[in-house]
Design goal:
single chain, 16% strand, Elongation Factor Tu (Ef-tu), domain 3, globular, binds flavin-adenine dinucleotide, alpha+beta
Length: 678
Amino acid sequence: MAERWDVVVVGGGHAGCEAALAAARMGRRTLLLTGDLNSIARLSCNPSMGGPAKGHLVREIAALGGAMAHVTDRTAIQVRLLNSGKGPAVQALRAQLDKDLYPATMRDVLSAQAGLELRSAMVTGLLLDADLEAPAGGRVAGVVTANGEHVKARSVVVTTGTFLNGRMIAGERITPGGRVGEAPAEGLSAQFAAAGLRLGRLKTGTPPRVEARSIDFGRTQVQPGSRVPLWFSFEPPAAETWRVDRPAPWFPEVVTDGWRVQMPCYLVRTNGATHAAIRANLHRAPMFNGLIEGTGPRYCPSIEDKIVRFAEKDAHPLFLEPEGFTTSSVYVQGANTSLPEHVQDAMLRTIPALAAVEVLRYGYAVEYDFVPPDQTTSWLECKRLPGLFLAGQINGTSGYEEAAGQGLIAGINAALAGGRPGGSGPVPLNGARANGAAAALETTSSTAATLDRLTASNRLVLPRDLAYIGVMTDDLTTTEHREPYRLHTSRAEYRLLLRQDTAHFRLTPIGYRLGLIGREVHERTERQRDQVATVLKQVRSKGLGAAPELNARLRVAGLPPVTKSTMALAYLRRPEVGAVALAALGWDDVPDEVADHVLTEIKYEGFIARQAQAVARTRQLEHHRIPDRVDYQVLRGLRTEAQEKLSRFRPATVGQAARIAGVTPADISVLLVHLHAS
Ligand SMILES: Cc1cc2nc3c(=O)[nH]c(=O)nc-3n(C[C@H](O)[C@H](O)[C@H](O)COP(=O)(O)OP(=O)(O)OC[C@H]3O[C@@H](n4cnc5c(N)ncnc54)[C@H](O)[C@@H]3O)c2cc1C
């Protein structure tokens, strides 16, 4: 007899890990099936996490109860704050990771999760509900493994990354595979196609890894980590859980006496000779000689692509990134390539620091099938195959963080759909409280509206004004994608509302409601929200006089004096005044993160209020639901293009419909008239 689970997750990459953890933490009996248990959460490409938009995603995953931030904090070899000189909306954390410790730690987290079983198996097909079994569709009822086992499930989450019909390409050599050393996934693509799903083909690439002992580090520019502690998690993991090793002796400028052991990265640049070596071999580059058919990521081009597209540039930066505390392997960031091996040797050796470099693993490209996500709902369920959820690179995205964010949403929705009657359900809602400053109020009301919709529909859809994860799932499911999708801060309209420091205020009430966040963490978040609101209220009513004691305190803190009576609010708005001023002005028991948050709210109040107003204006459209039964083909007044696009994307709300390329404001008016009339 076939086994029966609530949720089966296929693939143990970054999407699969978050999906499986979320479903199990929500009380669902969950099985994770993956090709090789030793490759769970493997960092297929760069050994790093975060950066602009991606760092925001990791914080949001933490705020909702995911594991990526926690594991990153425990296994980082370096942490930095990028864009620290720019506005708070674009500041972003980035960590270098130990490429062995990260997967090992994630696997420990999964293994320790009650209700979750991990098993090594390749999935070759889907089981369709016996009653509905038909080539054109049906509800997904489980999976079939390569050795013929039938595993039944109420929901299935497929997160197979770059493995669907994967083939790896280096120079003239093409081998089947999902990534180096791992076989491709066969069977699933054919079944998707048989069920009427469109498939597309994409490619991505990875650079060479080189031997640290063959690098002349004296000819590189050192890039150190942050001197002050920085965390992706809202509560840093206990120091005894950090997986720190004594760093290997080959790397200079390692810091062992700071807040954590940190290894630097090293910057070098390509030059005319590098470019000449590449140009002379372009006919051998698979992406130029026709061997590669799939489209690659525009924002992460191969080195050969950069040389062609930016022919006027005489140098490109390359970052030499250690891959861990104890390995001598170094990742050459910026040098993605699928050129033949001897060309990779030649091009690297034109760089003075790499004149004698030894390559440990050559760069290669991988080409794979994806399921264009306009065939998926905003809660990541496949429209043609209900019960099937898709997340990660299979949806045409690129990057660990994008995959993990989708995995979390797909896992949550699979759990909501795959609950057993009488099974352990989500923790009851404690309520998202509305208080505090205008922006905090705005985001809280968006959180509350999302919780209301969750209660009404038993589905989690994060709106664009609430989370970068929401921006990503909305982009994926309402627009056409012909190249790998990557999240950027510029994709969000409400960047100031989606800052890294507000992720827990926006999302932790939702994680708590779903049972992904414990009561203690939820209450701590609410206490902090209250603290921000209280300090803001006090700041608004406090006046400052030019008192000598106050000016003495300001001088000690390196701040300008108060020369005439003014309001604390006006003083704190001055560009040269930072968060330390709050302590000097009397709020000396306020934690740093609260002080930073208060100061951002004060300095950007006008901009934040404007974004909040824009959210309120569009909210009506965003919340105006479109019933599933609408037949756009017979809707009089719609242009043919709009009929075609709306039928294809089947938006859940009028807001989503308005964002579909090819749907005009006039089409939306027609749609609204129809919705009001019906
Ligand atoms: C060569 C290469 C280069 C890359 N370059 C970049 C880059 O430059 N920038 C970037 O942002 N991202 C890059 N990536 C992508 C990055 O690795 C992915 O975006 C990310 O890992 C996707 O996560 P995922 O969970 O969707 O899939 P993956 O991390 O790929 O995990 C998929 C998992 O599914 C398992 N699996 C697959 N098929 C089956 C099956 N049928 N049955 C059971 N298990 C299965 C696999 O064993 C694997 O564990 C690259 C990936 C590769 C392979």
